[in-house]
Structure formats: structure tokens, C-alpha cells
Automatic annotation (TrEMBL):
It comes from the Eukaryota. InterPro entries: StarD4 (IPR042555), START-like_dom_sf (IPR023393), START_lipid-bd_dom (IPR002913). Residues 10-207 form the START domain. It comes from Geococcyx californianus. This is STAR4 protein.
Length: 207
């Protein structure tokens, strides 16, 4: 696909999908991993044959600063150990853009480096923010990379009612890594990657 979709309806659909994920009953999730920084659950994705992951943890900072570190921009590459390059390919109005980024190999390179092209959108949600994205089939795939695909993903960040200087960060991630991979390796990597995301983010916010 060499043309970009209309950003406004895509952003609206993406936001609505993430809000739908955010209302899934607790009983539908199965615990995948728990660390001191975050808890990760999973359930069967309705988009592809893998899992939809939910991650949640309290981060000791205000919403805007946390989201600035997560969404496409200068901060993300500095602290996210999985992300190796990031380029903004197109910018739309209202916090929308298309970015191309690459990820490092994982699990002793059983999972080779991946490339993604994602539409990203950041918007208000209740007292906080939602930053969300979905992959596009856009642009040529660079050599030495497998093109992965993110089905609707996003991060809800809202201030804690009792302590507004702390925020509850809840993420929904469903990444189709593609290529010839054992599903068990993918599942192991996803749970660990999401838990590490929180510990890396917390370290970055303290510096």
C-alpha cells in the first residue's frame, strides 16, 4: 500500500477500539507475568491468532510527562531498549503521525530485528491521555528486517485520584511479529518485554 488512509476516521476507530479493550471484564484475562513494576495479563486476540496483552502499573510521575516518553518523539529512543531507530514519516493534525521504527533482536536472536510502520494518535481520555497506534502496510520494507504488524495497541494514562503526582498506566498490545517463529517464544518475549517497558520507563522518568 503506497497511500495513507484518511487520518480522522482512522483515529476515531482506533480510539473506540482501545476504549472497548479497556472495558473488558477482569474475568476474561489470564495472568501472564507479575513484577514489582507491572502486572501483565493476556487473552485471545480477536484480530489475529496470537494474544491481546494487558499491562498495568503505577508510575510515579504526572500524565503528560509519562505520555511524552511513550508516544513518538525524541524521548522514546533514549530509554526504550527494544527500539533501535525511529523516523516520523508523515505528520497530520491533532497529534497524529505515521512513524517507522525498528526493534532489536530478542531471545538470543531467535526473534530477529523487526520493522514496523505505525499510525499513531494521542488524545484526551477522562482526566488523562490515551496514546494509541496501529500498523499500516506502507513504504518499502528495508533489507535485513522482517516487517511486523501491530494490531490496535495503546496506553491509557490517568492520574491516581488519591495522589495526582502518580499515574496509572494501562497498556493493550497485540503484536504480530510475522516470520517463522515458535509461538511459545513470542509469548515469552511479549510478557517480559511489557514488564521491562515499565521498569525502563520508570528509570527514564527519574533521570
Amino acid at each position: 500500500m503506497d497511500f495513507l488512509p484518511d487520518s480522522a476516521p482512522l483515529a476515531t476507530k482506533l480510539r473506540n477500539t482501545l476504549i472497548q479493550y479497556h472495558s473488558i471484564e477482569d474475568s476474561e484475562w489470564r495472568l501472564a507475568k507479575r513484577t514489582k513494576d507491572a502486572t501483565v495479563w493476556r487473552k485471545q486476540s480477536e484480530e489475529f491468532s496470537g494474544y491481546l496483552y494487558k499491562a498495568q502499573g503505577v508510575v510515579e510521575d504526572v500524565v503528560n510527562r509519562i505520555v511524552d516518553h511513550i508516544r513518538p518523539g525524541p524521548y522514546r529512543l533514549d530509554w526504550d531498549s527494544l527500539m533501535t531507530t525511529m523516523d516520523i514519516m508523515e505528520t497530520f493534525e491533532e497529534n497524529c503521525c505515521v512513524m517507522r521504527y525498528t526493534t532489536a533482536g530478542q531471545l538470543w536472536n531467535i526473534i530477529a530485528p523487526r520493522e514496523f510502520v505505525d499510525f499513531s494518535y494521542t488524545t484526551n481520555y477522562k482526566d488523562g491521555l490515551l496514546t494509541c497506534g496501529i500498523s499500516l502496510d506502507y513504504g518499502e520494507v528495508r533489507p535485513n528486517f522482517v516487517r511486523g504488524f501491530n494490531h490496535p495497541c495503546g496506553w491509557f494514562c490517568v492520574p491516581l485520584k488519591d495522589c495526582p503526582s502518580h499515574s496509572l498506566l494501562t497498556g493493550y498490545i497485540q503484536t504480530e511479529l510475522r516470520g517463522m517463529l515458535p509461538q511459545s517464544a513470542v509469548d515469552t518475549a511479549m510478557s517480559s518485554t511489557l514488564a521491562n517497558f515499565y521498569s525502563d520507563l520508570k528509570k527514564a522518568l527519574k533521570t
